[in-house]
Design goal:
single chain, 203 residues, seven-stranded mixed sheet, three-stranded mixed sheet, 8 helices, 25% strand, globular
Length: 203
């Protein structure tokens, strides 16, 4: 969705001031990357499972990180504060960070680690990540976060409802068409035959 609604997504996220429009609107190259790994921060590596859900490039070497929380339950202030925003710790004799991605994006690193630029690996290159980052969640959840129930996010965190993105993409018809196109393949050949290539069809 984001790839095809670039400028509308830019408006939704209010990122116009930081974006390189010539780069951002060049459809010959992708700007959205999923499950993106991080490069070492302050000389310390991250656990292999530490990946950003989405990185949207707004400049050739600058990306905005987005975390997707699309469930409808267990997204309470208490759980987020106690589990996901509790900070990063050093492990493996100080060679790696452990901690939730939310803590990483909030730069909640131990005081002994030198301040550095948080970077991600996109394809064969590295890009810097903005201090501003997004949580994409259902509008119902964001409503529950209003007032004192809002998790202890810093001022760098912005939230955006999944429904707003779908609406910006074109609403029900466009969204249904996209999902249909994504799932329009031979399920049997992809899921059954390829997983058990040596099993005769009649077994």
């Amino acid at each position: 969705m984001i790839e095809s609604m670039r400028l509308r997504f830019l408006d939704l996220c209010q990122l116009s001031e930081q974006v390189d429009r010539l780069f951002f609107t060049d459809r010959s190259q992708s700007i959205v990357f999923t499950n993106v790994g991080l490069t070492p921060y302050g000389g310390v590596s991250f656990d292999g499972a530490s990946c950003v859900d989405l990185v949207v490039l707004i400049q050739e070497n600058l990306g905005v990180p987005l975390e997707l929380k699309l469930g409808e339950t267990r997204l309470t202030k208490r759980r987020i504060d106690d589990e996901w925003l509790s900070g990063c710790k050093l492990s493996h004799h100080g060679k790696r960070f452990s901690g939730n991605m939310m803590s990483i994006l909030e730069r909640k690193f131990p005081a002994t680690v030198p301040t550095d630029t948080l970077r991600a690996r996109v394809g064969e290159r590295e890009v810097a990540l903005t201090k501003e980052w997004f949580v994409i969640a259902r509008s119902k959840v964001l409503y529950q976060w209003e007032g004192v129930a809002r998790p202890s996010f810093s001022a760098n965190v912005r939230t955006i409802g999944l429904e707003k993105i779908v609406h910006g993409y074109g609403g029900q018809e466009s969204f249904n068409t996209m999902v249909h196109d994504l799932l329009n393949f031979d399920y049997y050949s992809e899921w059954i035959i390829t997983t058990e290539p040596n099993v005769p069809p009649d077994r």
